[in-house]
Design brief:
Number of strands: 20
Distance between the termini: 36 Å
CATH topology of the largest domain: Dipeptide-binding Protein, domain 3
Number of helices: 16
CATH architecture of the largest domain: Roll
CATH superfamily of the largest domain: Dipeptide-binding Protein, Domain 3
CATH class of the largest domain: Alpha Beta
Helix content: 25-40%
Largest sheet: 5 strands, mixed
Strand content: 15-25%
Number of domains: 3
Length: 518
Amino acid sequence: MLRRSLLGAATLAWTLPRVSRAAAPDSLVFSWPSNAGPLDPHGYGPNQMYAQAMLYEPLVRYGASGTIEPCLATRWALDESGRAWTFTLRPGVRFSDGTAFDAAAAKANIDILLRHRERHGWLELMSRIEAAEAPDPATLRLRLDQPYDPALFDLSLVRPLRFASPAVLLPGGSVSAPIGTGPWRLAESRRGERDVFLRREDYWGEKPALRQVVVKVVGDANTRALALEAGEIDLVYGADQLDADTFRRFAADARFTTAISPPMATRMLAINSGRAATDDLAVRRAIQQGIDRDALARHVLQGTEPAATSLFAPGMSKAAPGLMTLPFDPMAAVTVLEQAGWQLPPGGRVRQKQGAVLALDLCFSGGDALQKALAEAIQSDLGRIGIAARLLGADAATLQARQRSGDFGLVFTETWGPPYDPHAFLGAMRAPSHADWQAQRGLPMKAAIDRRITALLAATNATAREADEQWVLTTLHEQAVYFPISFLTNKQVHRKGLGEVPFGGTFDEIPFHHIRRG
């Protein structure tokens, strides 16, 4: 289903102008489906996270080894009450407009966030911060209303707790220009064409080997593959930038280097417990055993993502490994449905119960060829056990609206990977704007789930926190709210002359500053 024929080279020559390698030996040409956006460090879509991470830096960074490392703060300490963090700020740091980064600048950013706290309710730390204080230029203090153990992980995220120059902060909560402390600055942005990032020669840390990164806007995976093959772009990097067949084709081509990261997050379906017919636990359980995830991993994903065996990827949660997915067993799925009263009418192919038809909407991103292929395979599997899945491909805005309103039966979603999983992902389940809340809203114990999540986020005792996490994950597992498909990986393809391209420690940060031409 993902196999495609490549267009001719003449089409590519018209689509993307050729880049001269001789003219740009210290330049990298990358591609992304859309422009970087306004690059507000505190904003969400259409801001692209990889670009926000290029310009803006956190107090502390999540390292590739899974540890918290210094960034704009060199040291930090938690007081005895567990409610105040004190950070010693790195000296000599300046924003790309020349403004000094100090405690007053950091406080100005956090004050803006606190004035618009409702925008960031998905992140628990934003609910816990009472105030930011700047007792002197080198010291920032964050006062919390209660202890919150994952605070440093939340501070390391790409957004919203990063810092723009005070000169560009607007009262409404956005910025007038993308000015950060990071190793790159935005030099040019042409809508629908490209974004150009230049190395900052006055950057406080180790400077990137590359002088510039040109990001071409290439919305179609076929065109992206053609551009890479013809030398119009140097690197493809990400979870779904190429379909699996194309990735495997590049892997067999001696001109290219390919790599797959370790599992980082989970690709899955959220199953709506608040909407017919998936409000029936029997239907949700039948879905668990009616879809062949091993076949999806083998035939659709082509082995680029291992089949998921739990809600979280390995190492993300101590509670998850004991909650293994049910094996593919369509006969067991049929038995569950029939025992619950869902019968096939004579000569029919779709089950019914008391006049209700067992049909549901399977929603996916219409522009994502991989999701479409997965959806078609899932539709076929469900059809074999008498469940009619209507495929609804939608643009990003429409799909987001469906997730926020609960207007779906099944919808593709993902966990967020490190450093979000499990705490931030679980915390966001309490926000009605998320597909997870909508998927869980029909559960009789939804209020208890939210209370347990709130308790585990506030816990300072590891045993109590793990007990609450185990209860939440066990309940979601027993209620069959999620169908894990595969463990997400980042994939990269580049010409061998580019040299080594490392993987970042998170999905959203592409380590351009560590790339150097061979």
